Amino acid sequence: MTSRERVRNIIEHRPADQVAVHFNPPHASDITSVGVKLVKPAGVPDAYFEWGTHPELMNQLDHFNGEVHLDYFGNIIGRLNGITKGECVKGALTDWEDLETYELPQIDTSVFSAEAAEKYKACDQYVVVGSPFSVFSILRDARLMTNALMDTVLEPENVEEFLQKILARNLELVEAIKDFGADALMFWDDWGTQDRTFISPNTFRELFKPIYKQIADRLHSYNMHLIVHSCGYNYAFMQDFIEAGIDVLQFDQLGAYGYEKMADEFGGRVTFWSPLDIQKTLPTGNRELIESEALRMISAFKGKGSLIINDYASYPDIGVEEEWATWARDVFMAHLADK
After folding, report:
1. 124-172 residue pLDDT tens
2. Residue 317: what pLDDT?
3. Environment class of residue 299 by beta-carbon count within 10 Å: exposed (0-12), middle (13-18) or buried (19+)?
4. CATH topology of domain 3-41+94-334
5. Would you list the domain boundaries of the chain?
6. Low-confidence ranges of the chain (pLDDT < 50)
7. Cα separation, 307 vs 312, whole angstroms
8. In what order do the strands lie in the sheet containing 271-274?
9. Quick check: pTM over 0.70?
10. Element (H or E) spanning 292, and its range?
């Protein structure tokens, strides 16, 4: 069984020869990814898209003394001390009156060349294309988090109109990758705090669930899957995620829900793609705890066929040493066939 067959079988809840993994290089991985490029906005100096103390951008901010750059969505991204990827400090859509003329960036379709398509169609690994048009994240940046959350209650019509723009770009992307050899499209939408979702399930159902569903339906019509990464405690949305057609949930804190709870309630209905808990387990550096929790995680899903195990993308960013990650990885590798 190839890696691609293994992952597709797990996601579609069919028998597989073992649990699938997505570990950081040089370790084993059944999955490979493809990034989507966007067309650079016209008329904007190239320097603005690089980190710096650009006066024209800094003058738009209040009391910010770090580095900034512009992204292709028109947002100003800021960081302090040059050590992070930054956060949006001024959204592109500060006033809803500008919504009618606001345009999301275009997709650079040169990435999906015939030569690249040949490569990915022949690939043994499961191919994931990352969408730059995540459903909630784009709204969150364009309006800033506090405004975006209030907008879901006070400006639902404007939110709906903005989401239609996001939907349109994602459907364009699906059409671009349908013959590319891709297996899935992936979003990065954080939906919760440590103990609850940012918005109510009813608001999610009214505004966001229909967008996910339309994208999922289009993907499914081409035999592709929808994957959503989401941090936070999103248990209140689980049934809606499934009903919207999301095939895979990439959770970095699956342990916060309880491995057994999620396997028992949702195994066979949705696939979880997760590392060992990145907040309460891996950062402890406690070998006994890490190894016992790794065994607990893989044992919880035994016979349920709904688990893909992965590494966190950048362990140094969360204070985890490579040796600690290796302890978990070794347990997982020893029990892959015990599916």
Report:
1. 999 999 999 999 999 999 999 999 999 999 999 999 999 999 999 999 9
2. 86
3. middle
4. TIM Barrel (3.20.20)
5. 3-41+94-334, 42-93
6. none
7. 15
8. 20-22, 307-310, 271-274, 248-250, 225-229, 184-188, 126-130, 31-35
9. yes
10. helix 287-300
